[in-house]
Design goal:
The chain has 2 domains: about 290 residues, Glycerol-3-phosphate (1)-acyltransferase, CATH 3.40.1130; about 70 residues. By secondary structure, it is α/β, with parallel strands linked by helices. Helix content is about 40%, strand content about 20%. The relative contact order is 0.12. The strands form 4 sheets. It has a 7-stranded mixed β-sheet, sandwiched between helices. A 3-stranded antiparallel β-sheet has the order 6-7-10.
Length: about 400
């Protein structure tokens, strides 16, 4: 009798947790984007302009008018991933793709580099690995270790049968001994979870970093981290790429790709570069299909290499004084940073400081169409010739 009541209490608790997750998720979806006033917040507006430039360069088919909505959704998915990371009930909404028994056996019995991206509910990969008793070390930046390390351990230890750090550990990707720590984890039988698109852990994020190589990506190029593939070759262990995405709010996917095994007959640096390109080729279709779910749009400008930039030619028609003009948002963005005003050319992420008077004029042009005679004739000609404003 006691056992039955105990099971009933557990069932009730699980149902309550399940409902709490759904309510928290729906509340976040409903309220988060409504509360974001992008144009009124200097920090948000500056970040939004960088994301807009990235979308113009890498996904030019997406209409400019949808960029703000995409930006808000990027921030929303980031919040949702944090919520779902600590909620095992969220795994009930996960569909696993291409993860066979052989794949689970590989992950459980042999150290592997699990390469993933900041897409969808990317933190759920941790819950999946923990639930399936797959030993691994999570390699993340210093800030994540300091702010969320204890939370990760609490999540791990909350699962039945999990105690201590035998099958799970966290490695600071910015520590000087990170390479040695990763090799020790591999030798102890643990896999490594690393983010290919992270903005930490490969040294300073820059296009000139020795740990990066140029790769083709969505019609342009980026300087991508090649150290993950380099390590796989050095340790002679396979790479399993995993991507998360949401087919809907009720359907979160974890998609596994077939393992990539090191070719020891190939020079290590060449293998690293070719494999890095292969991994991005796997993820690119998901990012293209669900651009609002890729967090790295927030910082891709740090590693961008723009080879092509197509715009419509400037319309040189003769206009009457009553015709209206607008900011050419395809080519330029405007924002403030620490009280200073800037005009940004999206094609190459270059910035030009402007005075507040010009900033206010361009803000009006961005928010609504204004009459040409609202701008000084000489200033109008300069802005028009440079393609900053256009007739509408």
């Amino acid at each position: 009798m006691f056992s039955t009541n105990g099971n009933f209490i557990i069932l009730q608790f699980n149902i309550m947790q399940y409902q709490t997750y759904i309510e928290s998720r729906n509340k976040l979806i409903r309220q988060f984007k409504q509360g974001l006033k992008v144009k009124e917040d200097e920090n948000l507006n500056g970040q939004y302009n960088m994301v807009s430039a990235a979308l113009v360069n890498y996904l030019p088919a997406i209409a400019i008018k949808t960029h703000e909505k995409i930006y808000k959704n990027i921030l929303l998915h980031k919040k949702l991933s944090i919520l779902e990371q600590s909620t095992y009930e969220s795994l009930d909404f996960v569909t696993i793709e291409n993860c066979s028994d052989e794949m689970i056996s590989l992950l459980k019995n042999k150290p592997t580099i699990i390469c993933t991206f900041h897409t969808g509910s990317y933190r759920l990969l941790n819950l999946f690995l923990m639930k399936n008793k797959i030993p691994y070390s999570l390699v993340v930046g210093k800030n994540v270790v300091e702010q969320e390390g204890d939370a990760f351990m609490k999540i791990y230890n909350s699962l039945p049968g999990n105690t201590g750090e035998t099958n799970f550990s966290i490695i600071d990707a910015e520590n000087a001994t990170v390479g040695l720590q990763m090799l020790r984890a591999i030798k102890s039988g643990r896999s490594l979870v690393l983010y290919m698109d992270g903005n930490t852990g490969a040294g300073a994020t820059t296009t000139k970093n020795y740990n990066r190589c140029p790769i083709d990506f969505l019609g342009q190029q980026i300087f991508a981290r090649k150290g993950i593939a380099f390590l796989a070759h050095a340790a002679n262990i396979p790479i399993v790429t995993v991507a998360s995405y949401r087919a809907s709010w009720e359907d979160i996917r974890l998609k596994f790709f077939d393992p990539i095994f090191p070719d020891l007959n190939k020079e290590r640096g060449l293998f690293a570069e070719e494999t890095t390109q292969t991994i991005y080729n796997l993820i690119a279709p998901i990012i293209k299909a669900y651009p609002e779910q890729w967090e790295a749009w927030l910082y891709i400008h740090k590693v961008a290499h723009i080879k092509h930039f197509e715009t419509a030619g400037v319309d040189k028609k003769i206009a009457t004084i009553t015709e209206k003009i607008a900011l050419n948002s395809l080519r330029f963005g405007i924002f403030k940073l620490n009280g200073s005003s800037f005009l940004m050319r999206k094609s190459n992420y270059s910035f030009y400081e402007i005075n507040n008077s010009l900033y206010n004029i361009l803000m009006k042009c961005e928010r609504r169409h204004i009459k040409k005679d609202c701008i000084d004739y000489k200033l109008f000609n300069q802005l028009y010739e440079q393609g900053v404003i256009q007739y509408v």
